[in-house]
Amino acid sequence: MSNPTEKTKYLLDTNILIGFSIWTPIYFHGDFWSKLANSLKNGDWVLLDVVVGEIKYEGDLKKWCKEQKGKGCVRTISENDRNRAVEINNLYKMIDDTTQNSIADPYLIAYAEANKLGIVTREIRKEKNENLWKIPDVCDALNIEIVKKPEDFLKKIGF
Q1: 87 to each of 68, 113, 138, how far by Cα in Å?
Q2: How many C-beta neighbours within 10 Å does residue 29 have?
Q3: How far is residue 86's CA from residue 15's CA, in Å, rounded to a whole number?
């Protein structure tokens, strides 16, 4: 059981980082991104290599992520995380075999589970007729905290 005075740390899903970059562009809101980088450096939240790998388009966000990686602030998933991600995807099919969409999601969940972290995502729950599980559904099943509103995440890390 975790210490009730400890605050939960969070992983960001790729959609949160992309959303931040759309609504608070780095070139207009450098102070925001500086504070976000400092809170990452201080360990208030965790950025995973698999999330950084999902940032496909060259631009300010990809550059910012590379800078964080260069500072040693991007964590790499372990072999245990990889194995657990495969188990999670076998139990709760998340990855689309055709498009390979959501490929990072089981890794994100495996890392969160192993390190007792929450996940911040804008992903919605799956519809009844959908075959693929979504991050909130799997987190519910595995008792991992989900934060849906970026504002709530920023407050929780003392932004």
Answers
A1: 30, 12, 12
A2: 15
A3: 22
Tokens for 37? 């980088």
Query: Is the pTM here over 0.85, yes or no?
Result: yes
- 77's tokens: 């998933």
Q: Which two tokens stand for residue 51?
A: 């999330």
Q: Bridge-partner residues for 21, per DSSP?
A: none
Query: Is 1's pLDDT higher than 60?
Result: no
Per-domain residue ranges for the chain?
A: 10-156
d(CA 52, CA 79): 18
Render pLDDT for 57-85 as a digit per residue (tens, 0 to 9): 889 999 999 999 999 999 999 999 999 99
Give, as one character, the DSSP assignment of residue 135.
Answer: H
The residue whose two tokens read 């969940």 is 109
Tokens at residue 148, please?
Answer: 């849906």
**For the chain, what is the radius of gyration of the CA atoms?**
15
Superfamily of domain 10-156: 5'-nuclease (3.40.50.1010)
**Cα-flanking dihedrals φ and ψ of residue 5, to 5°?**
-85, -15
